[in-house]
Amino acid sequence: MQYQNWGPQDMSAPTKAKLPEVPVERGMVLEDVQSGWVGAVIRVEKSGGMHVVALEDRRGKSRSFRLGFGFLLDGQAIKLLPPAPRQAPGAVAGRTASGSVRVAGQRAQVAKASRIWVEGKHDAELVEKVWGDDLRVEGIVVEPLHGIDDLAAAVAEFNPGPGRRLGVLVDHLVPDSKESRIADAVMASPGAAGNVLIVGHPYVDVWQAIRPAVLGIEQWPVVPRGQDWKTGILAAFGWPHATKEDIGLGWQKLLGAVRTYADLEASLLGRVEEVIDFLTVP
């Protein structure tokens, strides 16, 4: 036993063991070891010649920290690096997160009249993370609806038609559900045939479209009937779940685990690809 090692120690200093080096990403949830501050990455900037990351906690307060050692990611000590460099125009084409060939030097197109509607903010963020590069090339915008109870009125106001198509991605679209009845009513409305496509996945919430193995679990927890589903999921994970901020930070942590289309269930992949084809193929 070496008594000289007792007492306060600088946990931010590198240890002899080589720590994983992780480029910082927006939305990543980190803990600063020295202060105990936990928050999601909201921005990275240079200050005084060094990279600084701003972490926003569940109460909406933020603090800035210098990149490097002294951070925990999912409970593991890491060395936090500056953001990974973006591929320069003219570089060898790789793959986008959706698996399609990346077009080198391609600029985003002017937004077309056609739209993809999803139920909420989390759905929009997931679609953007995986298919964002493809949608910018096609000029297709994703917009959250914040629920589909008024979908018929929203579609009527959108006034779909040739050159102004609408693709809608719905949660829990299963036979004899409220969602299926709403979809059927919309598709029976004037102008919908050939100009509107409503598809859906079978999950209660788009969170479940993330493959459990990506999160290190065998299956998604079962939430008792009558309990708010997202709150129940976060509680089962042992994460904070009392406020809207807790739910938002929990989602950012889940979203951070998604890297490519391979991290999502096939039942969501097929539906999103179907919508994109509908909006882009003449």
Task: Tell me the β content.
Answer: 15-25%
Helical residues, percent? 25-40%
Class computed from helices, strands and strand pairing: alpha/beta
How many H/I helical runs? 6
| Cα-based radius of gyration, to the nearest Å | 22 Å
Ends distance: 74 Å
Strand order of the largest sheet: 1-7-6-2-3-4-5
Mean of residue pLDDT values: 84
Give the overall shape, derived from the CA principal axes.
globular
Most strands sheet = 7 strands, mixed
* Uncertain stretches of 5 or more adjacent residues: 1-7, 87-93
Strand-and-helix sequence, N→C?
EEEEEEEEHEHEHEHHH
Q: What's the β-strand tally?
A: 11
Architecture overview:
The chain is an alpha/beta fold. Helix content is 26%, strand content 20%. It has 6 helices and 11 strands. The chain has a 7-stranded mixed sheet. Strand 10, helix 3 and strand 11 form a beta-alpha-beta unit. The radius of gyration is 22 Å and the shape is globular. The relative contact order is 0.12. The N terminus is likely disordered.
Element layout with pairings:
Elements: E1 21-23, E2 29-32, E3 38-47, E4 50-56, E5 62-66, E6 71-73, E7 76-81, E8 115-118, H1 121-138, E9 141-144, H2 151-158, E10 166-170, H3 178-187, E11 196-200, H4 229-237, H5 244-256, H6 266-280
Parallel strand pairs: 1-7, 8-9, 8-10, 10-11
Antiparallel strand pairs: 2-3, 2-6, 3-4, 4-5, 6-7
